[in-house]
Amino acid sequence: MMHAIMPICGFRDPHCWPNSCNLNLYEDGGMSVGWHSDDESLFQGKLVDIRILSLSLGARRKFELRANWPEEAESTQPKSVMLSDGDMMTMEGMTQKHFQHRVPKEGHVDGPRINLTWRWTVRHTPRCPCRGRR
Ligand SMILES: O=C(O)CCC(=O)C(=O)O
Ligand SMILES: [Fe+2]
Questions:
Q1: What SS3 state is found at 95?
Q2: Quick check: ipTM above 0.95?
Q3: What residue stretches are annotated with the Fe2OG dioxygenase domain (predicted)?
Q4: CA of 39 to the centre of ligand 2 (A)
Q5: Contact in structure between 50 and 44 (CB atoms under 8 Å)
Q6: 24 lines ligand 1 (CB under 6 A)
Q7: pLDDT tens across the length of the chain (134 residues)
Q8: Do 66 and 78 meet the contact criterion of CB atoms below 8 Å apart?
């Protein structure tokens, strides 16, 4: 799958490809993911400019983004985008520091959706077998 997707995203050299992938299955519109930032320390997204590449497959679902600062989040509406089968979306720069995102419940959606997010793990634990590789 990466051989098909990464060149389209501008990553021709496999050495530059993401080294981790997270897969979420939403069986229907009753399944969701709440407000969060992808701020795990292994990706360093709160500290440095990072990229997350997201592929959506299956049912069309709403993806929302809001400010990560309580005052601003209360005074502004979340931004939303509909993600359809085959759509690629990226979160770049300091998105994980300044924004939160979610996939809300949508009762009328009855089909499954799979979301893959490719990321670059940059901070490895001492026991991680990938430590020392890029
Ligand atoms: O399903 C999506 O589009 C987003 C998933 C997500 O936010 C995550 O896996 O961290
Ligand atoms: Fe996320």
A1: helix
A2: yes
A3: 17-126
A4: 9
A5: yes
A6: yes
A7: 999 999 999 999 999 999 999 999 999 999 999 999 998 888 888 888 999 999 999 999 999 999 998 888 788 899 999 999 999 999 999 999 999 999 999 999 999 999 999 999 888 777 777 777 65
A8: yes
